[in-house]
């Protein structure tokens, strides 16, 4: 009888806590703490920065999300928390990231990384979007072309340029 009661209590507790564990990560905000895995990674906030009224990139530096001075150098590490972060490739002026081999690593159990790219075909003409999806808990590997005009990262993932 006691075992049954304990088992039922454990199931009830696990069921109550499950939604909290599965919640989306908090989007980075200026001057807020960042996790150690985000060290030197850059992100785009999902809400406009209060001081500038624009989406200024943030970089995790010394444990806090800090605004990046614009125009910024391209970053080799990007952090996404779920919603799309839209970036410019080398096919545009002031790229946010450089071409090459990249990986997207899920940062939580059951998460997937998704990347969508468009490339410049000729002056004023861009390709249809090319999407690449990773499996749950699987690191995604892909190439960003030197002609990439836009690159969109989504999922709770760390994006890293390799090599």
TrEMBL record:
<feature type="signal peptide">
    <location>
        <begin position="1"/>
        <end position="22"/>
    </location>
</feature>
<keyword id="KW-0732">Signal</keyword>
<protein>
    <recommendedName>
        <fullName>Secreted protein</fullName>
    </recommendedName>
</protein>
<feature type="region of interest" description="Disordered">
    <location>
        <begin position="27"/>
        <end position="56"/>
    </location>
</feature>
